[in-house]
Description:
Layout: H1 22-35, H2 39-43, H3 61-80, H4 84-88, H5 96-107, H6 112-124, H7 133-149, H8 156-165, H9 172-180, H10 188-206, H11 212-218, E1 224-226, E2 229-231, H12 288-292, H13 311-320, E3 334-336, E4 352-354, E5 361-362, E6 369-373, E7 380-382, E8 388-390, E9 393-403, E10 406-417, E11 425-427, H14 428-433, E12 437-440, E13 444-449, E14 452-459, E15 465-467, E16 469-471, H15 487-493, H16 499-508, H17 528-533, E17 554-560, E18 573-579, E19 585-590, H18 596-611, E20 617-620, H19 629-638, E21 641-644, H20 654-659
Parallel strand pairs: 3-7, 4-11, 5-10, 17-20, 20-21
Antiparallel strand pairs: 1-2, 4-15, 6-9, 7-8, 9-10, 9-16, 12-13, 13-14, 14-15, 17-18, 18-19
Helix pairs in contact: 3-5, 6-7
Amino acid sequence: MDNSPSRDGLRAKTVQFNGNNFESWKFSVNIALRSHNLVPVVDGSLKRPIELKQDNTVTNQADINKWDKDDNLALGYLFNTCSEEQQNSLLTCDTAHSVWNSLTSRYQQNTVERRQSLQQDFLNYRFKPEHTVRYHIEAIKLLVQQFKDAGGLADDDGTCNKIITSLPPSYNNFLTAWESSPILERTLANLVTRLDREESRKHNCNGGELSADDKAYFGFPSTSTRAGRSIPPTYQRPENRPSPYPKTGRGRGRGGRNDRFAASNGRPRTTTRCTFCNIIGHNEETCRHKNSGAVRCSYCNIVGHDEKVCYRKTQDGEKASVAEPQIDSENHNSAYAAGLPSSGSRSSTDFFLDSGATQHITDQKWLLKNLRTFPLGSRWIGGIGQTKVDVLGEGDMDVLTSVNGLTKSRTIHGLLYAPNIGINLISVGAITNNGADIHLTGSQALVVRNGAIEMTAERVGRTLYLLNISVVTNDVASIARPIESSIQEWHQRLAHISYRTIIKMAESGAVDGLNLQPGTQPPLARCHECAVGKMKRLVFLTSSTPKSTRIGSLIHSDVCGPMQVSSIGGALYYVLFQDDSSGFRVVRFIKQKSEVAACLKDFVSLLHAQTGQLVSVLRSDNGGEYENHELQAWLRKKGIRHETSVRHTPQQNGVSERDK
């Protein structure tokens, strides 16, 4: 039986290349090529076999025929996914590899101009109010990946700095917590995970509404009142979004900017909704859109523009074009997860069909039975943004499927347990490898085995299918019974008030449910938390050490940053060096804290060249930028003594702290 990929197998819905969307087209093409093992043929790593003859007979004719067939299949796919304008420039190409080289040489050039343009886009990128944090992170990672593809150098530290410095003001508390975490834990993967959790908490608290600080940051006017009634804030329409209202003149009308919300007599206008344009404030008989012959968009069904300039279609296309990374197929202890849908309205038992996942994945441990655990770090999943999510086990799951009114019990085997994946995915590849077929329609997906439908899935988005399955679990009932709490527990519940006060409250019945055993006395053991809370720090005395008399005998140094907004050159920090004797200061702007060592060496050389003096003592805090092995070895070589302040005690480095 021939298992080679057919031409129909590559006719999946992919992005068409029009000359302006190379990155999204390249990613879409790679998915289809990898699924049919055609990547080596396209990138040129698998050459056409040379004919081997023996007795005038070609001994490897089967290999040559297979290569020709794969090349023809890949060539047709690359050619057919290009627009007509791009196809005209590929008519001279005879192999898939030549087509690929022709396109990449024109649209993915490793030129200085392209790197400068991408770097400028990276520095100027800002958080947009209509985007989620996950979309914001993926957009920055895509810019970084494009910069690397163009021959530029970028690391995770720069990506993390860009992400945290471009967040709106409502994330300032998160930024403070992130800076206080250990340096070794400030990885890109941890940042993405913590930002996802922070966004989820913010969404649960404010229902998705922007805070007052964020509205001011994005330029949204706050809600005000006039004449005892509320006036909605003016919506800031994006530049490329066409207005649904036809332009009838240069003025704004009698009502000014809020003409739709207020009439000239001070009373609210009618709330009638037009049945033609679906806009409140008029009826179909007086509708300006209908009378002016305005067109209706076939994509969003809004009157006033056509599909070619539809803002919603553009936004959906941008979200769909966020690239996802490839993963090393030689690592047998890895799996791959494709795009993750938004978690706004999902349940913990919802499972989605995913054509990009290589195995079934879930983040719910309680759904699994026969769980086999794995050591931490032994297996992982590669997902969006080149992140790795640890896999901690593998098990089976019992489900109920309903097809045409008939309910059956089935078991899904081989589900990976990844607690940080944030989604439940059923792999299309794993299903087909098990002998079943997937049939996709406009609104439904069917899992078919031997002509019989086993499972169905309903389309819930533009590319997502939600499986119609119910998870079977063992129901557990719990019975609550009242218990009497000790005086120590009440002491903790009531914010560590006095034990005698608690006894008086119990005796007088001041608090419902506060019941103590008769004759209860304050415990002899002291409360540790109370003792710690009453501690206070002694006052720092003014230093009596005389000022240095020789230039270079004592140098104070400290680092300030990261700043909320990077400089034009991309700097987020600055490092300060101050001579104790003369008060001479030098400030260097840096992008990363790792540049402090080089700045210190330059300062020591500058001081020696201009004054002839050598540095004897360097005084700084206990920051990692000063305590690294390379800098400490250099200080010992130069004979410079390094004095550090006690942890969390900036008063001991007051000279530098006051200058910041």
